[in-house]
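Quick one - first record:
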Amino acid sequence: KAEDAKLALIKLRGEQNLDIVETEFKRMLMNFKIRQNERETNPSKIEAIKNGLTMFTDPSFLKPFGILCMVLIVGFNLSGLPVIGFYMIPLLLEAEIPIDPYLAAAMLATWRGIMSLIGTPIIGRFLKRTVHFCCGIVLTIGLLSLSAFTFFNQDSGLVHNAPTLGWIPIISILLIYTSVSLGWLSIIFQLRVSNNISISKKF
């Protein structure tokens, strides 16, 4: 309603000040266009929420996000890593190794930290998919060997008959920590970070 606005401005300033009216009116139109451009480039919070909700129904977002959620659940929660970290000392006590279990747990945690540092350049040199699948195979071997030891060592029968087999948990945890740190978990976290960046760019 530019004409009505100009007539209102003439009534406010007076017909004898048309030059002032024209100057102010041009300035008002320019400010209006600037605000309109700002709304288009920087939408309000409500518009941003609406855009975010519509993005969650976009297949180009849903597919990678769904894959990432599945990989994160399988890769972290179902990998046994949280459980192994929680029951590390009881596992080592059950193995009856000739090392202090707390010292062994600290050494295994240190090994995991070293492998995490080594894994960063390895991921950069090779294809992520290749590294991820290779680490998955090593992780599976470590989990199977640890599960088999726990199953057959009920009431410490296996360790009493063959004390050397008590080192299996440490070797298994070494394999698990190596595979997780070299790529299995670090690649998943990298994918999660890149996905979060792409979401923030869309917002």
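second record:
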Amino acid sequence: MSSTSISVVVPVYNDPKGVSRTISSVVSSTQSPDLDEIIVVDNNSNDATESIIKEFTRDVDLVKYAYEGDVQTSYAARNTGIERATGDYIVFLDADVTVSEGWLTAAIDEMNSAEVHYMGCAVEVVDESDEPTVFSQYNQHSTFMIEDLIEKHGYAPTVCLFVTEELVSDVGQFNENLISTGDMEFGNRVKDGGYELHYTDQVTISHPARTSFQSLIKRNIRIGRGHCQLQRNHPSRYGNPGVPPRPTGIS
């Protein structure tokens, strides 16, 4: 991998266990000397999340604590990370994923080889429980089809997204007011800017499965509300929300 600099940005809200898992995974599985920093952005948590992050900052020089308390969305937290980032590449990870050995070197090598500024990778949904549920099995087979999302809908989810600082400077940051689907709006804007949206299966990250009906419903409601926000703000692209408000015209 050619000499460059990389910032990893991890937004988090009330998830001390998840953020601990992700920071530990990145630290233990990343040998790249070009990893400059892991910026963990606390989105106004009210549990032990802040203390967990700050414990890492004391023990690991790469880990930096940032705070976003003005806007309660993951995209506002990611924007705070962008503003703090010093790397030529910015990597967004969700605060509950784990990465594989050598993941970062492989990812940046792929971006350099393909000469791209935007890249999504494979995501494996993993059920770590002793007794998998029908809901976790459904989640494993219906979530994070990254290649299809890039090809059919023009975006990769921010669960694991690689971009260059140059691209962000050109197209702008995320829409911080969206509670969901901000990754779609951002990716569509990137595509409209003439950039190639690239996918690689040479890098795989792991995401825990949702194991209950309630967790799946909560996720779907949040995504539906985000779609309605997109439709209200960009009807020419995403269609008009139904009455009562519901996402129409977005698959």
